[in-house]
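Re: Re: ligand-bound prediction request (bumping)

Still looking for help on this. To restate: I need the protein modeled with adenosine monophosphate bound, output as structure tokens. Inputs repeated here so nobody has to scroll up.
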Amino acid sequence: MSKNYDVIIIGAGPAGYVAAIRCAQLGMKTACIDDWLDKEGEPSPGGTCLNAGCIPSKALLESSELFERMQKDIGGHGINVKGLELDVAAMVDSKDRIVGDLTGGIIALFRAHGIEWIPGHGQLLPDRQVRVTPHKGSRHTISAEHVILATGSRPVQIDAAPLVNDRIVDSEGALNWTDVPARVGIIGAGVIGLELGSVWQRLGASVTLLEAQDVFLAIADQQIAKAALKMFQKQGLDIRLGALVKSTKVIKSGVQLKYTDAEGEHSLTVDRLIVAVGRSPHTQDIATAEADLLLDEGGFIHVDDKCCTNLPCVYAIGDAVRGPMLAHKGSEEGIAVAEQIAGQNSEVNYAAIASVIYTKPELAWVGQTEESLRQAGVDYHSGVFPFTASGRARAMRETGGMVKVLSDTGSDRVLGVHILGVHASELIGQAVLAMEFDASSEDIARTIFAHPTLSEALHEAALAVDNRALHIARSRRS
Ligand code: FAD
Ligand code: AMP
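Reply:
Sorry for the wait, this slipped through. Here it is.
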């Protein structure tokens, strides 16, 4: 039986919509199904990233940072601002307009590439057939030579803190409050908890984060994480480690939490609570039992290193499969799968994917941490350069943090780069590029960076690997 499409993609997040565009560029007849509806109940492609993740959180982080700077830092530049006022509802509206422009942009890109955009729910049936339940119209079945599953992830919910209207919310709810609660509690001091905590703290809330683990940001290099923790605490974020939330109760004056730590049981009352305890793959009803799609423990779709599932010509990408839950990781998998379908030999370099936390200062890293290198028994050198010694950082009055380069003792190959500081999210791209080209720390040390730029700190950290950083009294190689 002939198929309706070359490729059907289920999910139009950054993994699925990018895969669709690349398939269309390669001349394939492509359809993309997505079931996301916006606040008005309209179909809205872009997945979590555009609708409730990367973009709206960065819009609010940007707006709230501007407000805080105007309030606290701007005087240092010799600028006095009088009559500063905050309009949270307008800030949230501005965020929604940014999201609307970008999701509308995806619909336009689909049109421009001749991709059939199907708003509705998709479910995989045997033999690469897909049952479509459209938002408008009746249920029907379509088929393709290849199917790509890109159904993403959803916030983890815990029994200790069931969601309650706008009082106990997940990350999406916390992007839509239109007033500033006096006291905000957050369960989970991971990436999302820290970003949302920063937004509401900058806007005036007193924020307490309860984190079950004893170690702060265990995924990050611990020298960087420890320095960041000190800076966040200085800003006023109350981060309590080793604090396991056991129960929550909505009361008249807010939300009462009970948690335990090494000292015993405690209670805490806040006005509103954000549950930010991680995300789980969105795969519960992705395929019928007859389709026989294999899921791993934890509900991730089982894939090999080429994103092939257990079914022929069925692939899975993005948050729904193993690996870091990051938009750019899913997009790259989408591109690689599209190119594999077209007969090319594409793959994803999982060793060079940057992670970023968009707090102030930002944390950004790529590759190995000192902890992971020690654990693997790899001999390495570390070069560190603090932003206090950067002329540009001083001119910006943003001197917190450092750049750290880790390189292999024998070959000098760069194994990891870790940045805590202003614009770390942009600076890390240079390190990713270096690692993509298998650079040595000497390659970075020999590269000429413009002066005065923050990038010079990466140069100096690479020089510090060989004890020859120029703008610190004693280079800190270890
Ligand atoms: P999603 O973006 O989750 O998209 C999946 C889509 O598939 C959704 O639209 C969903 O409705 C749809 N779908 C699911 N099942 C079906 C079905 N059966 N039929 C039809 N449609 C279906 N990552 C970063 O890299 N940088 C950041 O700064 C960042 N910030 C974040 C901030 C927050 C608050 C959150 C929550 C996440 C953030 N992330 C960030 C993570 C990022 O959003 C995800 O990694 C990314 O969206 C995953 O992309 P995806 O395409 O795999 O899935
Ligand atoms: P991330 O996966 O980066 O979003 O981080 C989520 C964090 O939430 C992890 O560090 C978990 O340890 C933490 N967490 C999960 N459940 C609880 C809980 N009941 N109380 C406190 N912290 C929790």
